[in-house]
Amino acid sequence: MSINFYFEEIEEFQLDLPKSKKWIKNTISKEGSQPGDITFIFCSDDYLLEINRQYLDHDYYTDIITFDYVEGDLISGDIFISVDRVRENAATFGVSFLNELNRIVIHGVLHLLGYKDKEPEEKELMTTKEDTYLLDY
Questions:
Q1: For the segment 61-118, what is each residue's pLDDT rounded down to a tens digit?
Q2: Using CA atoms, how far apart are residues 77 and 67, in angstroms rounded to an integer?
Q3: How far is the C-alpha of 107 from the C-alpha of 70, rounded, in Å?
Q4: Please, how many CA atoms are within 13 Å of residue 116, restricted to the half-sphere of its CB?
Q5: Residue 30 DSSP one-character state
Q6: What is the pLDDT of residue 119?
Q7: How many CA atoms lie within 13 A of 69 on its CB side?
Q8: Of all helices (H) and strands (E), which one includes residue 26?
Q9: What's the CA gap between 27 and 133, in Å, rounded?
Q10: What is the C-alpha to C-alpha distance for residues 117 and 128, in angstroms, rounded to an integer?
Q11: 127 CB neighbour count, 10 Å cutoff
Q12: Which residues contact 121 (CB under 8 A, 6 or more apart)?
């Protein structure tokens, strides 16, 4: 079991790794699952756009792409996050970069836990879960 953080095509920024890892593990445990191997890759818009094109056949910018390797209740996956999108979203929503980053991090974890956000009711539940777990950070 490991939670790792990497930076691709962007400047590294400071994260409270022990706090972030504990928060992610606790979120997974509260949802009744076990943390497995989870990798977060913080990257540029262009880097994530290429992932989106190559693996999902989508030709647009996004803030997050989650690759799910979950087996049973063992939660594993790769989560790519565009720091450019996070910065823009933080400005749009009038929140701090860290707050928006944490929302996107936990959003990816919730996807690995099986939550969806395509339909309005799914999106509403996802946002409620994000808000709840953001309080735990």
A1: 999 999 999 999 999 999 999 999 999 999 999 999 999 999 999 999 999 999 999 9
A2: 5
A3: 16
A4: 5
A5: H
A6: 97
A7: 10
A8: helix 17-30
A9: 7
A10: 11
A11: 14
A12: none
Tokens of 102: 């944490």
pLDDT, position 127: 97
| pLDDT score for 30 | 98
**What's the rounded mean pLDDT across residues 35-62?**
97
Provide the greatest CA pair distance for the chain. 38
Question: What residue has token string 């990497």?
Answer: 6
In sequence order, what DSSP letters do the residues of 70-130 get, joined into one string?
-BTTEEEEEEEEEHHHHHHHHHHHT--HHHHHHHHHHHHHHHHTT---SSHHHHHHHHHHH
Given the structure tokens 């693996």, which residue do they identify?
55
Sequence-distant contacts of 82-88: CB under 8 A, at least 24 apart:
82/43, 82/44, 82/45, 82/47, 82/48, 83/10, 83/13, 83/42, 83/43, 83/44, 84/44, 84/45, 85/45, 85/48, 85/61
Per-residue pLDDT tens digits for 118-133: 999 999 999 999 999 9
Q: Is 136 helix (H, G, I), strand (E, B) or coil?
A: coil
